[in-house]
Amino acid sequence: MSVARTTPPVWFWIVGGIFLLWAAAGVFAFYAHLTLSEASLAAMSAYDRATYLALPGWFSYAYGLATLPALAGSVALLMRSTVARPLYLASLLGVIIQFGWAFGATDLIAVKGAAATVPFPLFIAAMAVLQIWVAGLATGRGWLR
Question: What Å distances lie between residue 60 and 30, 86, 95, 102, CA to CA?
């Protein structure tokens, strides 16, 4: 008969801390997106400026959905709460909407090339999936309550 370990191992705390830092960086990028100054806008390439100015109104909500629940999910994970996984799922939904629009409704890849535009969004999506997986693993092992 095996006894479930309810105390997470050290790697759980390290990974949780990395997730928290990653999510904080995402929230900072979201904040920078929302508060972009005229000077920063003027410094952009003509293509980037036009794309930014053409963003649909709902895009900021999708960006917020991608980042804010990830931060809350990371805090929940470190607090050992089962709420982490649904928050991470919401974040992945935001990532899919955000980058789905960026790649599906614009000519971003045609203009800048796949090598310059696809790897980082793929990494972001992979991190979201990893966060969901870790939260599910932690729940299954009884580390989250």
Answer: 8, 21, 12, 12
Q: Quote the CA–CA distance of 70 and 50 in Å, as a whole number.
A: 29
Count other Cβ atoms within 10 Å, centred on residue 70. 28
Contact yes or no for 141/5 (Cβ under 8 A): yes
Q: Which of 144, 145, 142 is nearest to 4 (CA)?
A: 142
Distance between CA 18 and CA 110 in Å, rounded? Answer: 34
Q: What does DSSP assign to residue 80? A: T
CB 69 within 8 A of CB 87: yes
Task: Kindly state the tokens that stand for 31.
Answer: 């904040």
- Hey, how many other C-beta atoms are within 10 angstroms of the C-beta on 67? 25
Q: What pLDDT score was predicted for residue 3?
A: 45
**Residues 6 or more apart whose Cβ sits within 8 Å of residue 16:** 74, 77, 78, 134
Taking only the tens place, the pLDDT of each residue in 45-88 is 999 999 999 999 999 999 999 999 999 999 999 999 999 999 99
